[in-house]
Amino acid sequence: MNTIAGYNFAYLDEQTKRMIRRALLKAVAIPGYQVPFGSREMPLPYGWGTGGIQITASILGRDDVLKVIDQGSDDTTNAVNIRRFFARTAGIATTEKTEDATIIQTRHRIPEKPLSEQQIMVYQVPLPEPLARLEPREAVTRKLHALADYGLMHVKLYEDIARYGHIASTYDYPVLVNGRYLMAPSPIPKFDNPKLHMNPALQLFGAGREKRVYAIPPYTKVESLDFEDHPFSVQRWEDPCALCGAEDSFLDEVVLDDAGGRMFVCSDSDYCTTRQAAGHTGSQSPVAKEAA
Amino acid sequence: MNAPHIPMLPGFADPVDDGQRVFRALLDALARPGTVRQLPGLQVSLPRVPAPLHVAAGAVLLSLTDFETPLWLQSPGGELAAWLRFHCGAPLVAEPGEARFAVIDSPATMPPLSAFAQGEPEYPDRSATLIVQVAGFEPSGLRLRGPGIKAECCIGIAGLPAGFWRQRRDAQAHAPLGVDLLFVAEQAVLGLPRSTQVTQADEDKEN
Questions:
Q1: Is B2 among the domain residues?
Q2: Per the residue annotation, which of A51, A52, A72, A241 is the catalytic one?
Q3: Residue B204 has pLDDT above 90, yes or no
């Protein structure tokens, strides 16, 4: 695709890229620490992934292949628009295949296929401060991070158990990075938390409105907070994916009619279509239906 | 006034792409400490840099520094200072502690690591990045562990003063504060963020 004239490569000017690049290098050097950066106005509103877009624009090169997912899907509005934005402003190749991408920008999911050392994950983050809902003053949360005082969060998790019998967070589940910094993994389902741990890929997080970037280097220890008698666990479903039969993926509930009909399908669209192409079927597959 | 006119050396041939390529190599170098990587394409994009810089050090400065980054040079020569002012616009500072980036061309006589900005407890990112020019890299001598390293990796760095690693280990008592190191030799770079634990293979004895 031809690039739009009048913009620098990948939209941002070079000085802005340098500033973000310096912040990213510090973020990598201090795993889980939120580095402030001068977030720019982007041609789409805060909340649409401006933090992730600015990181992608700063690291992107002409040889990169970009994949963008929104809740696991390659074809929702946010994903399609961001992919097209970079195809137009940088002229780079895009893909929907997880294994072909060198940079994967994501809103709230980690692909089901394992990542490689050659890949970089870029997360769009709405609220980078894991303690924000417990302590709104940044001056205080900074001090708590400086002292590694995360008692507030443990009390919150304990109160969940006292009230509901289990830890009630199912997404944006707090993690401790490299045994030091408490970090918000962005609103990924807690199902994806184990993939953060010792991942071969570099993981970068960008919050545009809150003006913070942070990172998890490859092969870094990431623990989900829990208690000895209430260990961390992930969601499980009773049925496999209705389209590809996968039993190991994160499933979305899809309402089929107004009579209570519903099915569960993979949220990772590339994973699901790859499996379907390989001949896997589920209860709602066209083939299975014909046979029935 | 009548000094002979020395034509200034050029910067990157293509600031956008060359800067991006160098940055990605540095991002990778700090994300995977202990791996030596050659900065790509420097023969074409940056054939020469002013003495005493190594080519890789020049490339790092061109890709990361600008008017926002106070820079400290161990050997602030006239040609080098003029080149940096023109291409990067970085303010040169006399005190190591004021710098965001520092270039060490002679590690034997470098100031102690504690002379550089270590960051603040609430803002550990406000620390210096040191570009240390060394004689070269060897396959062994140091054992590295920490984020970015799968289990353990071995590497050697030639030309560092005695006591350097003990100094760095002492500084790590203040983690997560500390300086981040980029070792360069000719066109190669090795990253050593503050989070990496270094032990000497021939341990016990000093240094």
A1: no
A2: A241
A3: no
